[in-house]
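Same chain as my last thread, 260 residues:
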Amino acid sequence: MSRVQAKKNLGQHFLKDRSTASRIASSLTGEGYGSVLEIGPGTGILTGFLIDRNFHDFRVIEIDNESVHFLRENFPAIKEIIRGDFLTMDLGRKFTGKLAVIGNFPYNISTQILFRVLENRDKVVEVCGMFQKEVAERICASPGNKIYGIISVLLQAYYDTEYLFTVPEHVFSPPPKVKSGVIRLRRNSIVDLGCSEALFSRVVKAGFNQRRKTLRNSIRSAFNLKREDYRDFGLRPEQLSVEQFVELTNWVEENRILSE
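reply #2:
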């Protein structure tokens, strides 16, 4: 099986346009971290530009054996080529300080990668990467936008998100059936949301699970409440900012019946 076939089976397409790769590598600010981890480098078109940026500690993680062999032969300057899966990687053991994560992320696990980043938000201070365009736009969407949703709120609670540029299909091999988008996430200053993080996640998911209904209906069906007079209950979930979801979470905490 060729490298292209192997990566295609993993949901990834090879970027072949050097100009695009250069733009992605240049999107890292280099501020607030000493380490950079590239996820799924494949044939290394992005890797070469990242090496040229001379980061103090640059490593890659690759799950495909053939790609690992290719990278070892062609990119000896990489500090470490980790054979493994980012989704199960212990970042705390591998990196002692702050780091950035970058990559042409496989579409089929791109959101899982971001939720893994979210779990390690005290260590991962920047993310730059390529996603399916619709996913990239959803991550960066603002309140009031029809594509604003669960992933928008949960990520924007801890990261400032920015949509950088769109990538057409023809710069990949094999070409995907959709356009891609490159985004950047920068860790914000929030350390404590001011509410239960677990309940916050539940409230956000409950709201958007019935996004066509008002919050009164979706939150009432998800939680056993003592009262139903919250001031924003007449709104739909996409109308609420992160801060408003935090306020709603605290209200639910105070007014839910714990025997639910």
